[in-house]
Every structure is written in structure tokens, then in C-alpha cells.
Design goal:
- By secondary structure, the protein is of the alpha+beta class.
- Helix content is 37%, strand content 27%.
- The chain folds into two domains: 167 residues, 2-Layer Sandwich (Ribosomal Protein S5, domain 2); 130 residues, Alpha-Beta Plaits.
- The longest helix is centred in the middle third of the chain and has 20 residues.
- The two termini are 13 Å apart.
- The structure holds adenosine-5'-diphosphate.
- The site of adenosine-5'-diphosphate has 18 residues, from helix 1, helix 2 and helix 3.
- Catalyzes the ATP-dependent phosphorylation of L-homoserine to L-homoserine phosphate.
Length: 308
């Protein structure tokens, strides 16, 4: 095989209570990429459509993640990359992670799968380092493994795939405002109280248990963030109203996707997820902010090949 076309899913990181450790892959929103083997060594981005992003290999997360894989491989050739962005950069649904993940997964396929998924996460994390200055795995892990993932630890990297109940759907609304990832990190406190910690890790345990046992009520009760959301939500106009509207429309829970400004909700069943999307939409219509809405089932496979 010389060439492969892949679907690279958008992802929701944090999922309310799991700041920096939980993430989930989406199915109906993601980028497409074409990766091609070349005889000359190195990586070239030959096409980039849909978003205004750098095409230089060292400035693009797909190039940087791909170079990390090349450096660890004994392959003497190189790759050409075409990127068709559907996910808006800086939206909070893992735009950079989709490109990093798509690149390394496709290259691994073209080389006959010499690397494990865990190794691919580590290469893709180099792309995340370029995008945000921190080589975090909470978006790239679900993009590669599919479903929900827990980053249990970094030293050594330990990723735990978590099953998803079959009727679980995600709704994401992306208000078209700019929230810089660096700003949304800067405003966070570096210390938390023991009381908040106890409530928060109770919820992380509850959410993971609910996902394993298909207990939708437990999932809903656990989708509460005592630590980050109260601070970060200040940067997202209309956040409280959107959250109230989503819960009133029947969502199990609602919170900030990644570092925002996208807001996600989880619901039981697609019909409910669509209703939740309509309720969220109404809030931004009234405020007068443009938005995109995505309703998606949980993507259990992660990045995958598609026919060209
Ligand atoms: P999101 O908020 O959707 O997770 P990120 O903050 O992860 O988005 O990434 C956006 C940043 O990464 C932008 O600064 C963008 O210029 C940079 N970037 C570099 N290459 C890419 C790429 N291929 N796709 C998306 N973003 C990229």
C-alpha cells in the first residue's frame, strides 16, 4: 500500500470532572487526510484545505507528529500529507489532535503497523506540544483508541480504554468566539481544596463506573466539575444559560469541551441529543453569536481508513 485516506475524529477532552485525564471520540465530525509514501526522506505537507494553517512541516502538528514517528522507525523513505480540515482550529474539540493522530496512524498503516497504539499516542503528543506547549494526551488518546479513554498517568504513559453505553450521544455547540488555550490555562488556580478534590474524584470514579455498567443516571450525576468549570466558564458568554437549557431539554450533563469555547452535552438517545442541540442553539441565537452544532454518536473505533 502506497497511499491511505483517513477520517480523523474530533474529540471532547475533560468531560466535566476529568480535567486533563478523560476524553471521548466523536463520529460525525472530523478531518480527512491523505498520506502517501515517497522515496525521499522527510515529510511534506502538499495540500491543506478548510482552515488557514501553516503548511511548513515544523509548524504543522501533522508534520511534527509524523517526524517523531519517522525518527523512531527504520524506514528510509518519507511521506506526503494532504489535510482536509473540517474541525475549526481552536474550537476546543481537538483540531490539532485530529491532524497529529491521523498522520501517525496512517503512516503506521503504510509501514505495516510496526508501532503500538501507545507508541502512536506518544508521537501524536509531539504535535500537541507544538499546538499548546504541553504534550498532553487527553485528545490524542481517544482519537487513536476510540470511545472514552482515561490517561491514568504519564510516567510511564498509561492509557485505559473505557467502554461506552450504546445509546450515549454527544451534542457539541461551538460559539464562534475566540478563547485562547493559553488564556484558559492561565486563569486556572494551581491549588484546590481537599473538599473540592473529594467531590471531584468521587465524580471521576462515578463516571467511569457508569460507563462500564451502562448506568445513565450515574453518568449524569457524575458529570459535574467543581474545579475548572466555575473559573473557565467566565470566558464563554452564555455558558450558564446553555447549560441550563441543555439539562432542561433532557441532557444527562453538560460542560466545557476541552479548553472551550465549545460546550458539550451527553444524552441518552439521538432524539434527545438533537433536542438538546436545538435548546443550546436558541441561546446563541438570542445572544447574537454565530455557532455550529454537532450531534454525534460515540466513535468506538477512533481514526480509521476511508475509501478515496
Ligand atoms: P482545539 O482547541 O480544537 O483542540 P488546538 O488548540 O488543539 O485546537 O490547536 C490549535 C492550534 O494548533 C492553532 O494554534 C493552530 O495554528 C495549531 N496547528 C498547527 N497545525 C495544525 C493542524 N494541522 N490542525 C489544527 N491546528 C494546527
Amino acid at each position: 500500500m502506497k497511499e491511505i485516506k483517513v477520517f480523523c475524529p474530533a474529540t471532547i477532552a475533560n468531560i466535566s470532572c476529568g480535567f486533563d485525564v478523560l476524553g471521548v471520540a466523536l463520529d460525525s465530525v472530523g478531518d480527512e487526510m491523505v498520506i502517501r509514501k515517497t522515496s525521499e526522506n522527510g515529510i511534506r505537507i502538499t495540500r491543506l484545505e478548510g482552515q488557514n494553517l501553516p503548511m511548513e512541516t515544523l509548524q504543522n502538528v501533522a508534520g511534527v507528529a509524523g517526524l517523531a514517528l519517522l525518527a523512531a522507525s527504520d524506514y528510509s523513505g518519507g511521506f506526503e500529507i494532504e489535510i482536509y480540515k473540517k474541525i475549526k482550529a481552536g474550537s476546543g474539540i481537538g483540531s490539532s489532535a485530529a491532524s497529529s493522530t491521523g498522520a501517525v496512524w496512517a503512516m503506521n498503516e503504510l509501514l505495516g503497523n510496526p508501532f503500538s497504539k501507545l507508541e502512536l499516542v506518544q508521537f501524536a503528543m509531539e504535535g500537541e506540544r507544538l499546538a499548546s506547549g504541553v504534550s498532553h494526551a487527553d485528545n490524542v488518546a481517544p482519537a487513536l483508541f476510540g470511545g472514552f479513554t482515561l490517561v491514568r498517568g504519564y510516567e510511564p504513559l498509561d492509557i485505559v480504554p473505557i467502554p461506552s453505553p450504546s445509546e450515549l450521544f454527544a451534542t457539541v455547540i461551538h460559539p464562534q468566539i475566540e478563547v485562547k488555550t493559553s488564556d484558559s490555562r492561565k486563569i486556572l488556580k494551581t491549588k484546590i481544596t481537599l473538599a473540592d478534590g473529594i467531590k471531584q474524584w468521587g465524580n471521576v470514579g462515578g463516571l467511569v463506573a457508569g460507563l462500564f455498567t451502562n448506568d445513565y443516571d450515574l453518568i449524569g450525576r457524575s458529570l459535574v466539575d467543581y474545579i475548572v468549570e466555575p473559573i473557565r466558564s467566565i470566558l464563554i458568554p452564555g455558558f450558564d444559560e446553555v447549560k441550563i437549557a441543555a439539562i432542561e431539554a433532557g441532557a444527562l450533563g453538560c460542560g466545557i469541551s476541552g479548553s472551550g469555547p465549545s460546550i458539550f452535552a451527553l444524552s441518552k438517545g439521538e432524539e434527545k441529543a438533537v433536542k438538546v442541540g436545538n435548546a443550546m442553539r436558541e441561546i446563541y441565537q438570542n445572544i447574537g453569536i454565530d455557532y455550529d452544532v454537532h450531534v454525534s454518536k460515540i466513535n468506538l473505533d477512533g481514526v480509521r481508513s476511508i475509501s478515496s
